[in-house]
Design brief:
Low-confidence stretches: 1-46
Shape: globular
Order of helices and strands: EEEHEHEHEHEHEH
Largest sheet: 5 strands, parallel
Strand content: 15-25%
Number of strands: 8
Structural class: alpha/beta
Mean pLDDT: 78
Number of helices: 6
């Protein structure tokens, strides 16, 4: 069983706890899912598809995730650094943030803190090869929706992103 860490249960309008089974049979412990408005295809065409921001210093990883998520009608924006994301004019349109933890310059955790300091509460999934229990505690305290290890299991990532943007 893979455990996906969620935070902010006291802030969640709906609390969903328990085991979830993915299509491949993997069981996931879910402890908090934000309920959001479901967007119909007609509404999406009018308002635009959800924007997923990917921040990772590994260009090939960013491109692979962008191609994968793009096939599911998400608008994907990729950034090579946290600084690049923070300078972007698109922050308020981001529905979900996929954020690497260990990057040159500003770390993913620092990016999350900067977003919070600006009053932006973007649902964030940390994707990292560098997470131990202590690091995960810091990420959860910073408001991580989930923490996924690299290499990323694509179907797990897709399910999480779909839940964040309310498409499931």
């Amino acid at each position: 069983m893979l455990e996906v860490s969620h935070v902010g249960a006291e802030r969640c309008p709906v609390l969903a706890s328990g085991l979830e089974s993915l299509d491949d049979g993997t069981q996931v412990q879910m402890s908090c899912l934000n309920q959001r408005h479901r967007v119909t295809h007609e509404e999406a065409s009018v308002r635009g598809a959800p924007v997923i921001a990917i921040v990772d210093d590994d260009e090939s990883f960013r491109e692979a995730l962008a191609r994968f998520l793009g096939t599911f009608a998400f608008r994907v924006r990729s950034f090579a650094s946290g600084e690049e994301l923070l300078q972007s004019g698109e922050l308020r349109s981001v529905s979900c943030l996929l954020l690497d933890l260990a990057m040159p310059g500003m770390s993913g955790l620092e990016v999350k803190h900067q977003l919070g300091a600006r009053g932006l509460r973007i649902p964030t999934i940390f994707v990292t090869a560098h997470a131990d229990d202590e690091v995960e505690q810091h990420l959860v305290a910073a408001g991580a929706i989930a923490i996924l290890p690299k290499p990323v299991e694509q179907q797990m990532l897709l399910r999480l992103v779909q839940r964040v943007v309310g498409e499931q």
